[in-house]
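Lab notebook, bench 4. Still working through the backlog of constructs that have no structural model yet. Next entry is a single chain of 379 residues. Request: give me the structure tokens for it.
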Amino acid sequence: MRHETWSAPFGSSHVEFGAGALARLGPLVVRLGGRRALLVTDPGIRAAGHVERAVESLRGERIEVTVFDGVEENPTTKHVEAGAQCARDAGADLLVGLGGGSAMDCAKGINFVVSNGGPLENYWGANLATRPMLPSIGVPTTAGTGSESQSYALIEQERTRRKMACGDDKARFAAIILDPDLTASLPRRVAATSGMDAISHAVESFVTTRRNPLSTLFAREAWRLLSDNLERVLGQPGDAEARGAMLLGAHLAGMAIECSMLGAAHACANPLTARHGITHGSAVLLLLPHVVRFNEAAVGALYDELSGGDGGGGGRPPLHERLQALRAVAGLPERLRDCAVPRDSLPALAREAAEQWTARFNPRPVGKPELLELYEAAW
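Model written out:
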């Protein structure tokens, strides 16, 4: 995959893959009819030089570009409102989300507000936008969330810190650029947490109550690419082939989410991030091995099908052990207590996790008692 470049239509999106693909941003904007682009990103992406390269490509096609770099990790409605005002002031007719999931989700959130008006809360749910939305392009700089392949924006409500999932078919990125060069400058910690987040997407989407042949196809290939290459990327960050495999794997895992949603590990992770500031990828992996063990009675054979394991009976480890090994390679924490989560906070966390929408898609039903059991196991 190292020297491979390709482009392909998929559904309503167009995907460009390959080293140096960011240079195709300007021509893609022209193809979509854009003349005034708002580039949504964060200060770290600007510092890495990626914003400058993106702006160069845009201006090479005589496209006016305004940069909004006010995105922070786990963006809230405050960031969306600030970006929306920037888009209005610039008269933007196209949006580009350049960065990790935070930047791309913020770009989608901005699109809802600018195109359809009102606060973002109006679009909390599915397909609530009644007007057309601006064309947009997603450019991930991490192999993690797969936000570029999803129609949902995950944005925290500023006042309550509740995670809102705002989805609409019209919010999909019309074009996606997967450029492995953009992940070369990632700090090891970011590469580890984002890579494990992508792995969790493959694992959870493979067994949800909404699983189907498409989600199965995407999740299985995502798992193969991600689990085979995470250690390579972390040990040899200059390995362009492994970076490309991780980026494509994260993209496919995002497509699997779009087809079949997620489960209890993500339901448990969101309150940990909101209440205790634990990075999303770390939060999910604190719970995922325990969720897998919890679900084994219902879907154990599916987990073995995904990972090539056999429940440990023939020398190949079961999935929950494989996940623990990958988590150790990534250097992520193993226990909630290692992250300063007080044990007496677990009931409140379980109550909030039960309200998360992904909990309803877990293959084994979960409510507050079961989620508390999972938190206890992870503590």
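Notes after review: The chain is about 50% helix and 10% strand. The mean pLDDT is 94. Flag for follow-up if needed.
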